[in-house]
Amino acid sequence: MRKQLRTLVTFLVLGTLTANAQSAFANGESGVTVSNNNSTEFTNFVNTKTKKIARKNTKDIEVYNEVVKMYFNAPIAFYNLDENTKALFTNASMNLTEKLSNSRKKEAQKWAKNVSLNNNIFEFIWSNKNAISSEVIPTSVPKLDLAVTNL
Asked: Are 33 and 47 within 8 A, CB to CB?
């Protein structure tokens, strides 16, 4: 009886997860926010659907796309960006987020969330750069006087 109940609960949980994933996929939602195509799609959207934002924020769009493309094409260069470029990217993404979130279009508001999330992801990566230690702590290996096997 307990085994049947556990099986039933397991199938209900898996069914719920599958249904949620399918509905998110049907609505065009995806778990991937940072992608190489994302910057191209973003540029196309801004240039075609929000021309006013594109005209007033061309420099911000260029800086944003440059860093996103660097994330995929040159990860080491992205990881070692200078502080000035990081500040320009953060400022550009904040400006774009503000402009897009003030738009009446729902698609623009979704893009604002993606730009903000990408900024947060990149800030997290850059802030943890110093947390990784490359120090090697030497340890001594004990000398074995006894044989490992009894052959």
From this structure: no
User: What are the backbone dihedrals phi and psi of residue 72, each rounded to the nearest 5 degrees, phi first?
Assistant: -95, -40
Report how many domains make up the chain.
1
CA distance to 24, 27, 62, per residue, from 21 (Å):
5, 10, 34
Is 46 inside any structural domain? yes
Triad 119, 96, 35: Cα angle to 5°: 45
Tell me, what DSSP letter sits at residue 128?
T
Domain that holds residue 42: 33-127
- Answer yes or no: are the C-beta atoms of 37 and 121 closer than 8 Å: no
CA gap 11, 6 in Å, rounded: 9
Low-confidence stretches of the chain (pLDDT < 50) are 12-13, 31-33
Length of the chain as a residue count: 151
Residue 11 lies in a domain: no
Number of other CB atoms surrounding residue 25 within 10 Å: 11
Summarised one tens digit per residue, pLDDT across range 77-91 is 888 899 999 999 999
Residue 17, Cβ density class (10 Å: 0-12 exposed, 13-18 middle, ≥19 buried): exposed
